Amino acid sequence: MSHLFRTVPFAVALLLAQTGLAQQEPIRGNKPLSPQESAAQFEIHPDVQIELVACEPQVVDPVATAFDDQGRLWVVEMRDYPLGPADGQPPQSRIQLLRDRDGDGFYEHATTFANELVFPTGVQPWRGGVIVTLAGKVMFMADTDGDDVCDLQETWFEGFMQENTQLRANHPALMVDNKIHVSNGLRGGTVQSTDKRWQPVKGEPAALPLQGKDFAFDALGGTFVGMPGNGQFGFSEDDFGNIFLCTNRNPCIHVALDGEIIASDPWLTPRDAVHDAVIAGEASRVYSLAEAWTTSNLHAGQFTAACGVHVFGGTGLPGEMLNNAFTCEPTGYLVQRQVMRPDGLTFAAKRGREEVEFLASHDAWFRPVNLNSGPDGALYVVDMYRAVIEHPQFVPEELKNRPDQRWGTDKGRIWRVSSKTKTPTAESAASMNWNDADAAALVGALDHPNRWHRSTAQRLILEQIASDSAAFVAGLQTAATTAESPAARVRALWLLDAISKLPSQDATVAADFQTRLVDVIEKDKDFRVRRHAVELLSADNPQLPTALQAALTTDDPVLQAVAWRRLVLTSGKPISVPAALIQAACSDDLLRAYLMVPAVGGQCVQTAMLLDLLQPKTAGGTPSIDTLAIELARRVGYYGSTQEIGQILDRVSADQLGMQIVRGLHEGVVRGRRNWSQSIASDGVVHPGFVRIQTFAKSIAEDEAASASVRTDALNIVRLDRSDDTTQMLVALFESEAPTAVRSSAIDGLAAVGDPEFAHRILRDPSRFPPALLRSCVSALLRRPEWTSAMLDALETGKLAPAALDLSQTNRLRNHSDKKLAGRAQTLMASLSADRQAVIDRYSKAMAGEGNSNAGKLIFAQQCAACHVMQGKGHAVGPDISDSRTKTPEQLLVSILNPGAAIDANYFRYTVVTLDGQVLDGLLVEETANAITLKQAEGKMTTIDREDIDQARTTSVSLMPEGFEQQISPEQMRDLIAYIKNWRYLSGAIPGVATGD
């Protein structure tokens, strides 16, 4: 490579040290920058520097990297992103193998290891080659003759979905527990092994469905399994087995619960296993230096393409950045840093610096898509360097074939971020000579300060133990108890576990390992190490009960939770829960999940817990027990006997908590497909505890001074009683002027008890209900065929307006399981829309031409701005129409000319007639016992006292009236829709897109 590139690292560091860079002007336009020019556009944390490691032509379109023990840098190139090769052409993606032969930190020599690959997404070094994810498969590729070119390919697994290049299996990675993890890319698939070395875990099918799960398999052969978590493009693991994933809107997801807990609890789903360690979605914030374009304008300034999450574990950054989470945001040209701290079973995080990113660029072609740590302990940034990073599948129709979509397909960069101040520890971090490392050196490397070294040592030991485990046993046994770092002790334990399970292994090694685990549980100073030892204890270990009891006596609630659950499930009998664990579980939903074990020995474990929780406690410092009590009550209802349910009803008080516990019991009984009335009765007599709670609930539901939420909670209990008195009470609340939430709950109650007059009560005058309440009424009418038939009668006679049904309710009617009802609905809907179709057809003819967006902007200001906002101008009365990425011009035309076809109840026109004859129209934004508040055109808020109201009616028509065609011509409509669709492109800020002038 030329001398120019060899001096790049120093030049970049020097440029970034200059204070003038903070005021750089954003770099825009359609021209890419050279690596040196792009380097000058970075703004980065003041304590670190950034250097170029590799670039085009050696690297093009990189999406993933990995360093191996030979000093080579593996680079995955997705060269035909986003749509693949042209018809009839071979795939262009490949894996490059880079070397830094002169040791200057720049990888100047590249060899194409494998080419013509179909969308490769990640590599994991293994046995001199790499495990690769690509084309719906997990493969192994290796070079057997030493020329750095792949000449061996094995397919190990196949069946991952291949729907989209951004949503494919990716990031194969060796985990602490000796498994290879694969993020499934969100779309899952049905995966099976094509290699006899792997079989599904017991009880799972050979073709394993992965919807909503990630994937893992034993590195040395054994089983494969679905994993909690659902990663899109990214994976990271810390030294203690904590897995971190990401999706577009979620920059750092911690997988906090394992699959056994999720599978064993009727109330948990795979989604409950994960926790956003970093603020996600619309609450997230990113701070771009260049003008950032997001597919949805509503997502501006937020994470929209989070990827490559990495929890840093090296010495190459300042010490305070250890175990920080770093996430790429390529649409914002930045990498964000979050400082993480343990929070019970999971983590919480805060920004490294407020309103400033760790790394950001003024260069709008900088596209960081992945992160990795290297042997030197530095952080490496994979820069795809493209003009456009968004996949066409997720952009508006008008941008799917934009001319700049492939700009940058001959470019790509990899950057190194490291501390400006080199410490002795950091300088020695890369000093390991792997080629000469014997067993003792590899075991010693488990205690290395850099996580890359620890993981690499683990991998090399795994690769060698099948043929020479004896060389490692003694060293690992010593490391498991005496290694300086907890991280080393954990990896040593897992490697001993792998050795003990080898088919050829001496039984004494496994026995010694089990004895050593007990010693670790009782004596190790780090609770995280103890947790892993608890997990590794064999169920056959005779010391298991003693060891687990020892763990219960510690003061770490997480260790207690892990040990308690293991002890209950292995002993087959209920075990008392430590007070510290109960207290922690009151406020920690993840710890609570550990307590929700299935019944053991025919007994509901949660019954004793709940009874103890309800015992009177001293007031000082007692946490709120409500949430935990409700969860326990659900399990008592599900697993417990009638006698156990009766024990709980004996203990509960007639108060808010008592109501919640009864509700939990009911949910459990129903989930267990049992009869509620029989579950709370003895010899046909309803339990007095339930009667006591019912009486209290009725008093709260009728208390006008109570809040709407409290009254609604009470009604959930009231409706469990199916007596005539309950029906009369619900009818009275339904017909009252109580808050909408209370009346809606009363409707649900009447529907649940099967009120024979239910349909008549609603349909005799539907317009008397506020919009949100009317929508609840419609939902209730759809529950029973006879009620649905009555609703169709009202629609056919005009008593109920079609707009009272939202789109989903209309579709339910059209596709009703009762064919007769479905036919009536389809005929009705067709006839109702016929009168507007002629107008739509007339205006549709004008849509074929090219609209003038700038002319449409003027029309919007004149005709629409009173109720809508665009480009920050107008009034937010009607729905937000600025995000039109998924709406075609034809759909917008229909929405404008037939606004009542499918509208949200929140935008129904609500009409109030006052006693003095005033008629006020608007959106109902608030309703209290004393007043009604309307939002009117231009955002005007009007409040009317109830004592001044003669009538208040829902019109069930859109606030936007029909007849808009009388205001503008077909040609003006074309221009207006062109503006609505293209307002974001008028500035020309998106490369290659016409401005519409």
From TrEMBL:
User: What molecular functions are annotated in GO for this chain?
Assistant: electron transfer activity; heme binding; metal ion binding
- Start and end of every Cytochrome c domain? 851-984
Q: Which domain of life is it from?
A: Bacteria
Q: Which PROSITE patterns match?
A: CYTC (PS51007)
Keyword list, A-Z: Heme, Iron, Metal-binding
Which Pfam families does the record associate with it? Answer: Cytochrom_C, DUF7133
Database matches in NCBIfam families: CxxCH_TIGR02603, Piru_Ver_Nterm
Full protein name: Cytochrome c
Task: Write down the species.
Answer: Rosistilla carotiformis
